[in-house]
C-alpha cells in the first residue's frame, strides 16, 4: 500500500481527463504501464493548451459553425484541414488495431504541435482564417473525445454556443472519417514554417533573438505572395525580399528548403564582434596553456595517462571552438 497511488487522488490533482489520457498514451501492447507524476502533469498541461487555444479563437469569434457547414477557403484553413484529415486517418487506423497509445500520441502531436503551436500562431497573420480554424478545432474535439470525454464535450459546446442539456453530446455524434489530404498546400506551409524557423535562428547568430529586424532576404520556392504575410509576422521582419541568388555582406542560414540572408549593413555588429573576440582571446589563452603542457617532455613523462588524455581533449575542444568563432567573425566581416 505504501507506494500505491490512489486513483481518486490523481483525479483530484490532475483531472479525470489527464489520468485517462495518460493511461491511454502509456498503454502500449505487451508492456507494463509506468505511471508517474511527470506524465500526468504533461497530460494536464495538454488540457490547459486546449483551453488556451479555445480562448484565443473565441477572442476573435464567439462561436463557430460545424465543420460540415463551414466552407474552407483560406490557405491556412486548407492547410490545417489537411493536417486534421491526416490525423484522422492515422487515429482511425490505430484504433482499428487497438493501438490506443499510438492513436493518443497522434492526437497529442496534432493538437499541441500542429494546431495549438503553429496553427494558432499562423492565425495571427490570417484573421480571415479564424472562423475556419474554430470549426476544425471543434471537429478535433470529436476525434479526441474517446480519450478526454469531459474537456472535449465542454469545449465543443463552448465553441458552438450551445449546452449539453440543450444540444447533442459528442458521444452520439459521428466520429470524423474524412481523410482527404491536400499535398500541395502542405508543401507550401512546410516552406513557410521552415523559413520562419530559419529566420529566427539567423537572428540568434547576431544576438537579435526575438527582436524585429528591418530587412531579410529569402531564397525559396512556392507561392511567395501567399507566404509573405506569415513569414513577416512570425519571423518579425519589417520588409521581406525574395531572391534567386546569394546576398553578399549578409548573415546567412540554410533551412531544409530555404536560404535566409540578413544584410549586415542594417545591423549594429560591434557588440557581437566584441563579445566573440573576447571569447576567442580567452580560448586562445587556454589552448596555449594546454599546448605548452603537452609539449613539455617532463610533464608528459610523469603525469598520469588520464591527465594527459584530459588535456589533449581540452586542447582539441578549445581549437574546435576557436575555429567556430573564427567562422562567425568571418561571416560578420571581421
TL;DR?
The protein has 334 residues and is an alpha+beta fold. It has 12 helices and 4 strands.
Shape: globular
Radius of gyration: 27 Å
The assigned CATH architecture of the largest domain is Orthogonal Bundle
CATH topology of the largest domain: Isoleucyl-tRNA Synthetase, Domain 1
Structural class: alpha+beta
Q: Which runs of at least 5 residues are low in confidence (pLDDT < 50)?
A: none
Average of the residue pLDDT scores: 90
Number of helices: 12
Protein topology:
Layout: H1 7-14, H2 16-26, H3 37-60, H4 75-96, H5 100-123, H6 130-144, H7 149-160, H8 183-205, E1 213-219, H9 224-235, E2 237-242, E3 250-254, E4 259-263, H10 270-294, H11 297-302, H12 305-331
Helix pairs in contact: 1-2, 2-3, 2-5, 3-5, 3-6, 3-7, 4-5, 4-6, 4-8, 5-6, 6-7, 8-9, 10-12
State the main characteristics.
334 residues, hypothetical protein PF0899 fold, 4 strands, four-stranded mixed beta sheet, Helix Hairpins, alpha+beta, 63% helix, Isoleucyl-tRNA Synthetase, Domain 1, 3 domains, 12 helices
Tell me what the structure shows.
α1 crosses α2 (16-26) and α2 (16-26) crosses α5 (100-123). The protein has helices spanning 7-14, 16-26, 37-60, 75-96, 100-123, 130-144, 149-160, 183-205, 224-235, 270-294, 297-302, 305-331, and strands spanning 213-219, 237-242, 250-254, 259-263. It has a 4-stranded mixed beta sheet, with helices on one face. The model has no long low-confidence stretch (mean pLDDT 90). α9 links the parallel β1 (213-219) and β2 (237-242). The termini are far apart. The chain has 3 domains: 7-181, Orthogonal Bundle (Isoleucyl-tRNA Synthetase, Domain 1); 185-265, hypothetical protein PF0899 fold, CATH 3.30.2320; 270-331, Orthogonal Bundle (Helix Hairpins), CATH 1.10.287. With 334 residues, the chain is an alpha+beta fold. The chain is built from 12 helices and 4 strands; from the N terminus they run ααααααααβαβββααα. The protein is 63% helix and 7% strand. The protein is globular, with a radius of gyration of 27 Å.
Amino acid at each position: 500500500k505504501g507506494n500505491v497511488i490512489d486513483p481518486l487522488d490523481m483525479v483530484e490533482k490532475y483531472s479525470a481527463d489527464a489520468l485517462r489520457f495518460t493511461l491511454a498514451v502509456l498503454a502500449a501492447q505487451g508492456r507494463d504501464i509506468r505511471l508517474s507524476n511527470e506524465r500526468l502533469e504533461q497530460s494536464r498541461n495538454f488540457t490547459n493548451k486546449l483551453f488556451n487555444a479555445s480562448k484565443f479563437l473565441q477572442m476573435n469569434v464567439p462561436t463557430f459553425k460545424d465543420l460540415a457547414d463551414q466552407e474552407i477557403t483560406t490557405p491556412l484553413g486548407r492547410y490545417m484541414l489537411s493536417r486534421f484529415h491526416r490525423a484522422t486517418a492515422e487515429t482511425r487506423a490505430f484504433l482499428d488495431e487497438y493501438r490506443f497509445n499510438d492513436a493518443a500520441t497522434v492526437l497529442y502531436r496534432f493538437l499541441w504541435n500542429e494546431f495549438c503551436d503553429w496553427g494558432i500562431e499562423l492565425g495571427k497573420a490570417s484573421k480571415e482564417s479564424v472562423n475556419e480554424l474554430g470549426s476544425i478545432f471543434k471537429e478535433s474535439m470529436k476525434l479526441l473525445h474517446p480519450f478526454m470525454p469531459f474537456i472535449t464535450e465542454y469545449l465543443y459546446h463552448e465553441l458552438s454556443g450551445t449546452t449539453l442539456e440543450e444540444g447533442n453530446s459528442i458521444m452520439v455524434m459521428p466520429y470524423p472519417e474524412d481523410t482527404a489530404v491536400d499535398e500541395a498546400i502542405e508543401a507550401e506551409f512546410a516552406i513557410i514554417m521552415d523559413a520562419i524557423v530559419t529566420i529566427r535562428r539567423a537572428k540568434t547568430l547576431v544576438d537579435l533573438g526575438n527582436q524585429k529586424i528591418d530587412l531579410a532576404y529569402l531564397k525559396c520556392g512556392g507561392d511567395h505572395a501567399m507566404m509573405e504575410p506569415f513569414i513577416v509576422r512570425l519571423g518579425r521582419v519589417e520588409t521581406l525580399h525574395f531572391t534567386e541568388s546569394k546576398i553578399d555582406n549578409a548573415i546567412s542560414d540554410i533551412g531544409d528548403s530555404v536560404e535566409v540572408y540578413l544584410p549586415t549593413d542594417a545591423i549594429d555588429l560591434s557588440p557581437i564582434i566584441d563579445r566573440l573576440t573576447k571569447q576567442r582571446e580567452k580560448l586562445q589563452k587556454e589552448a596555449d596553456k594546454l599546448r605548452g603542457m603537452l609539449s613539455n617532455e617532463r610533464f608528459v613523462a610523469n603525469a598520469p595517462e588520464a591527465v594527459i588524455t584530459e588535456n589533449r581533449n581540452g586542447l582539441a575542444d578549445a581549437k574546435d571552438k576557436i575555429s567556430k568563432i573564427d567562422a562567425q567573425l568571418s561571416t560578420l566581416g571581421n
